[in-house]
Design brief:
Layout: E1 2-8, E2 12-21, H1 25-40, E3 45-55, H2 57-72, E4 77-80, H3 84-92, E5 101-102, H4 105-116
Parallel strand pairs: 2-3, 3-4, 4-5
Antiparallel strand pairs: 1-2
Length: about 120
């Protein structure tokens, strides 16, 4: 598995993940990467899954676990370009409503960053 990390919109993080996420080394690598981002970075995390060939329940479990941990810190874990298979896995496990998912980084940024802005007084 290959993970490319870069900053976007100032203090948010984009992770481009490529390959396979399954029980063993790849799921552990993803978990260590998310743990480092949680500890060292700020802002929301956008995980681009467009180049994921396969993800098993262990990989989904890591995403679910970190979803909660990011929420505890008032941060979002957002999925980009999930394949139909990943969406189906989330739906079958009744996890789809928990994850914000988008087909583009632009749509995700527009929605998620607008959500974080304070409302204007009425």
């Amino acid at each position: 598995m290959i993970v490319e990390k870069r900053r976007i919109e100032g203090h948010h993080t984009l992770l481009r993940v490529e390959g396979v996420i399954k029980l063993g080394e790849s799921a552990q690598f993803l978990a260590r990467t998310l743990e480092r981002i949680l500890a060292e970075d700020q802002g929301h995390v956008f995980v681009d899954l467009e180049r994921i060939n396969y993800i098993d329940s262990t990989g989904i479990g890591e995403l679910v676990g970190y979803l909660g941990r990011f929420q505890e810190h008032q941060r979002r874990l957002v999925l980009l370009h999930p394949s139909r298979r990943i969406v189906k896995l989330l739906e079958v496990a009744q996890l789809a409503p928990l994850f914000p998912t988008y087909d583009s980084l632009e749509a995700a940024l527009a929605t998620e960053l607008a959500r974080a802005e304070p409302s204007a007084p009425r």
